[in-house]
């Protein structure tokens, strides 16, 4: 292994892989790590190096993820693997296997819940023995959902000077961006996953080590009241909600299980329930958007229509234009409500906002996953959050925590704001003697 930590971008010549490579090559900490690029084609790797003017400092690896020997040789030589080779159900398992066996850290951008469930079952225990930290869903799927809950819980804890159990957490998404051929391919691959595995992954808490409270009821029209502005956000079903919720529930379960040994450790509490939606202009547009998604998903279930739609949608390697990537954005507004208690007659609530500059699924994802990888590569193990020090299949919140938030803010592309918004509770508590 090189003297400096090394970060391998696997699938570097793909659409998202190129964006990640470009971001890392010009990173503010580029002198602190070695950048390695992996792909099946040497010619395409050379072309990428030339187009980005990377010079000779970057390491190049010709590697086919279907070759265990090639994977072993490359993975064992680096510190962290950023895997962009999807669909992960088809190509991801051998990469995780190699990382776990060699004790190498791993991040990816998957949103494939059935595959994450398989990886947890296959590798979580082994990873705790080798020290490998495996963090799926470290991109747009599902960092915003996961980190915003982590921050809301932290705000409650700091305000109260003790852990505070959460009742509900609801996020409202506003975003602008495009879609790539890789995303389309992943969606189509999902239809080939055995029905039983899809069904098992669709259960609430399917990724969690513990079973939590029943979820919030499903709605055709979602509403989220903002106590500080007296506004109500209205919206529709968000198509990534099942994936994001499953990942957040894993964070909940990992935190909750750990805190059973010591309730002063961060945790969300046994009553925790999470939901999210896409903001629309009003209830009518919310209903129309939901119906449109139902019709669209239904069309993909019909073979002739699926064949026709594939002809119209982006192909593998294609994605949003540079202008779409630059002008895209993300804003997530979350209201988290604490469990009621005799000491708090009014609900204690936190408003947390995350914003991101760039197309959420691509340009911004390159930032999210790169900073996740660098959090692992550039941080001594004893400075990582407690769960990460033991290794395992974790989540962005449980593996990276505060240091990840700090890196994202330092990137200049992501902002966070988290504050108590129930002033009727805050003011009396601040006036309490000795507090």
UniProtKB/TrEMBL annotation:
InterPro entries: NAD(P)-bd_dom_sf, Saccharopine_DH-like_oxidrdct, Sacchrp_dh_NADP-bd. It comes from the Eukaryota. GO terms for cellular component: lipid droplet; mitochondrion; plasma membrane. The chain crosses the membrane at residues 286-309. Keywords: Membrane, Transmembrane, Transmembrane helix. One of its GO terms (biological process) is glycolipid biosynthetic process. Residues 7-117 form the Saccharopine dehydrogenase NADP binding domain. Pfam families: Sacchrp_dh_NADP. Belongs to the saccharopine dehydrogenase family. This is Saccharopine dehydrogenase-domain-containing protein. The lineage of its organism: Eukaryota, Fungi, Dikarya, Basidiomycota, Agaricomycotina.
């Amino acid at each position: 292994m090189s003297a400096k930590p090394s970060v391998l971008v696997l699938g570097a010549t793909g659409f998202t892989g190129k964006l990640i490579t470009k971001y890392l090559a010009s990173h503010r900490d580029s002198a602190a790590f070695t950048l390695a690029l992996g792909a099946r084609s040497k010619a395409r790797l050379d072309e990428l190096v030339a187009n980005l003017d990377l010079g000779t400092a970057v390491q190049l690896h010709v590697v086919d993820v279907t070759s265990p020997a090639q994977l072993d040789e490359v993975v064992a030589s680096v510190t962290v693997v950023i895997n962009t080779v999807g669909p992960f159900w088809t190509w991801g398992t051998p990469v995780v296997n190699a990382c776990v066996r060699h004790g190498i850290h791993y991040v990816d951008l998957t949103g494939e819940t059935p595959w994450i469930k398989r990886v947890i079952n296959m590798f979580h225990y082994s990873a705790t023995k080798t020290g490998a930290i495996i963090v799926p869903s470290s991109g747009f799927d599902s960092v915003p959902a996961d980190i915003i809950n982590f921050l809301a819980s932290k705000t409650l804890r700091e305000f109260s000077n003790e852990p505070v159990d959460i009742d509900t957490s609801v996020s409202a998404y506003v975003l602008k961006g495009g879609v790539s051929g890789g995303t389309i391919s992943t969606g189509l691959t999902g239809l080939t996953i055995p029905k039983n595995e899809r069904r098992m992954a669709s259960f609430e808490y399917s990724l969690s080590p513990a079973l939590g409270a029943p979820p919030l009821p499903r709605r055709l029209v979602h509403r989220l009241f903002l106590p500080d502005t007296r506004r109500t956000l209205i919206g529709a079903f968000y198509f990534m909600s099942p994936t994001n919720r499953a990942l957040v529930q894993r964070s909940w379960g990992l935190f909750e299980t750990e805190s059973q040994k010591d309730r002063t450790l961060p945790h969300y509490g046994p009553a925790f329930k999470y939901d999210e939606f896409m903001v629309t202009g009003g209830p009518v547009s919310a209903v129309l958007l939901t119906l449109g998604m139902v019709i669209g998903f239904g069309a993909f279930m019909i073979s002739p229509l699926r064949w026709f739609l594939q002809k119209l949608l982006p192909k593998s390697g294609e994605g949003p234009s540079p202008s779409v990537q630059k002008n895209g954005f993300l804003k997530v507004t979350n209201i988290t409500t604490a469990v009621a208690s005799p000491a708090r007659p009014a609900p204690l609530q936190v408003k947390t906002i995350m914003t991101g500059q760039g197309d959420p699924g691509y340009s911004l994802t390159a930032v999210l996953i790169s900073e996740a990888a660098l959090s692992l590569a550039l941080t001594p193990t004893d400075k990582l959050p407690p769960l990460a020090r033991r290794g395992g299949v974790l989540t962005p919140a449980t593996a990276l925590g505060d240091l990840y938030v700090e890196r994202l803010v330092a990137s200049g592309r992501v902002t966070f704001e988290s504050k108590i918004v129930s002033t009727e509770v805050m003011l009396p508590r601040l006036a309490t003697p000795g507090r």
